[in-house]
Amino acid sequence: MPVKVGMVSLGCSKNQVDAERMLYKIKEGGYKLVADAALADVVIINTCGFIESAKAEAIETILEFARLKKEGKVKKIIISGCLAERYREEVASEIPEADAVIGIGCNSDICSVLESVLESEKVVKFGEKEELSLGGGRILTTLPFYSYLKVAEGCDNRCTYCAIPSIRGRFRSKHIGALIEEAKSLAEMGVKELNVIAQDTTRYGEDLYGKLMLPELLRELCKIDGLHWIRVLYCYPERVTDELLEVIASEPKIVKYMDLPIQHVNGEVLKRMNRRGDAESLKALILKIREKVPGIILRTTLITGFPGETKEQFEEMAEFVKEMEFDRLGCFTYSLEEGTPAAKLDGQIDEETKRRRADSIMETQLIISDKKNKEMIGEEVEAVVEGFDRYAECFFGRTAADAPDIDGKIFFTSSKKLIPGQFVKVRINDTLDYDLLGEVLE
């Protein structure tokens, strides 16, 4: 009887792609994959270790499975991913319930790790970060009609608050031909919505080809039969070129949506973050994006309470949010991460102040989002069906303006039976917080 293996993957979609590659290798190795990790003989916890809240979630998940192991429901626990990579020896020594702790450079060795733990060998194994494979088969863990295409790994931006370069290593792109083949394979598997991702997607290709190649990659992706929506996530402001905007504007398959994490707008704060720009340059960029891609949905993320952030600098950011009226916005409190340059900066701000400032930004954004949603009432939009809500007795899905697992939903009624992955026309007739309500046009 084959050994049952389950996986819990935490954190971002980039980590999720790594998990899907490991699952493919595990299945090819003759193991039986189970959807509910609590029912597995061996559970792999693919952790996130980016910020404090993610680390807390990872540790909580590990302890939950340690309890199941103690009760005899799970036999072995393997810890992989960013937490394992970042806190190598600490994870191995402080979590004795873990039968294996492996770094990201050892993901390709997952089957040999499984063999070892099943023979009751303790495995603590770390390879070079650059050995993390950017290729190989995948078993999709998303809904079957959408997926992620990870075009690069690592990051060279060295933002002072961020631990990603130390966890994931230097920026390295995947060859364009291999990406096109992977995207074709995903389309053949039934993927209709492709979300293009990396730590810095706009930098794609610079290391391999000596120039920014995202526009060219997007043009090639648009030629693939079966793909209906192509979305670009994680765009670094400095690398949003006119060529990229022209491609987004002109290619029908590319949704008019851009994820543009600006983090702050005050020039002094951005300089301490080792990022460029200020409110004036960011405003000019946003106005240019909106001019060149009419109707584009702009998402951003901000950080409050970065070391030394004054009340005036925060208020500058708050005013910028009011003026720019982003379509989508997430605001996070600064997380002090050991080993990062920002952790050593003077002027660390108390948690209450950080949280109050973040809450204030999100209250402003809720008003903006509510206004923008109300302006949608009476409009007809295309939506992809994700499922049926039995309690609300209606279908739900997303419009092109909503990225999976990040943005809002659209709930709608239909006289016909709809299936997940189906694209429908919906007339919007009401709103609910960040979500839309409507009915399918028959």
Helix/strand layout:
Blueprint: E1 4-9, H1 13-28, E2 32-33, E3 42-47, H2 52-70, E4 76-81, H3 82-86, H4 88-94, E5 100-102, H5 110-118, E6 123-125, E7 146-150, E8 152-153, H6 164-168, E9 172-173, H7 176-188, E10 193-197, H8 206-209, H9 214-221, E11 229-232, H10 242-250, E12 254-259, H11 267-272, H12 279-292, E13 297-304, H13 311-324, E14 328-333, H14 351-375, E15 380-389, E16 394-399, E17 410-413, E18 423-432, E19 435-440
Parallel strand pairs: 1-2, 1-3, 3-4, 4-5, 5-6, 7-10, 10-11, 11-12, 12-13, 13-14, 17-19
Antiparallel strand pairs: 8-9, 15-16, 15-18, 16-17, 18-19
Distance between the termini: 50 Å
Main sheet: strand order: 2-1-3-4-5-6
Mean pLDDT: 94
Largest sheet descriptor: 6 strands, parallel
Radius of gyration: 22 Å
Which ranges are low-confidence, i.e. pLDDT below 50, for 5 or more consecutive residues? none
Number of strands: 19
Helix-strand category:
alpha/beta
Percent of residues in β-strands: 15-25%
CATH architecture descriptor text of the largest domain? Alpha-Beta Horseshoe
Number of domains: 3
The CATH topology of the largest domain is pyruvate-formate lyase- activating enzyme
The rough form would be described as globular
What would CATH call the class of the largest domain?
Alpha Beta
Name given to the CATH homologous superfamily of the largest domain: tm_1862 like domain
| Share of residues in helices | 25-40%
Helix run count: 14
